[in-house]
Amino acid sequence: MSGHSKWHNIQGRKNAQDAKRGKIFQKISRDLYQAAKAGDPDPANNAQLRLVIDKAHAANMPKKNIDRAIAKASGIGGAKFEEVTYEGYAPGGVAVMVSALTDNKNRTASAVRSAFSHSGGSLGASGSVSYMFDRKGLIEILRDGLDTSEDDMLMDALDAGADDMKADDEKFQIFTDPSSMASVRDTLQSKGYELDTAEVTMIPQNRTAVPEDKVKQYRHLIDELTANDDVADIYETGILPDDDDEEE
Question: Membrane-spanning regions, if any (predicted)?
């Protein structure tokens, strides 16, 4: 029985690792699509696409997955993919925005609606929660191995055209106007900085504490949405009880 138990423990860890890897690949695929869609699908002529491809390689993402995501943006294969956004409330009154990339809007809408319903949340109309978020450019630079002080990083970010910066022990977070993100990114790269993230995203204006009795339902909603292959990004305002210490 001990061998049987060990086997299941190993399988459990492997399944968890596979699920985590799948989520990482899912996000990178979205980033590849958007970078190729917004610019040239040839990475030689698209700095943002090169950045995402480098991240895909670092995550050991298979080449066929990278090529498939870029092909979607190029319209190769006949399928037409659209970006769709859904808005609603998770249990506990947490605002949620779901960004999806789909070739079948009816399928995706049904799946997203079911996820909210299963978890005790509610899907709302367009604009019902988006006003609670700000669209910003976000650039992240890891501090590990970086010999740059917080003051120097701030000066370089501001000189590059950034609006603001936050720092913790792990990384610098640089915020820009969405229209300036690409130029700030290129300037920082020209100064020799290695970027971990460079994207336009949605930043919540305020956070909502998830009540203790709603945590399980809240997690279920986020997990079900994340498991959906059509879902590219989830933006939400929730703070879980064990996240309180991490907030300023």
Answer: none
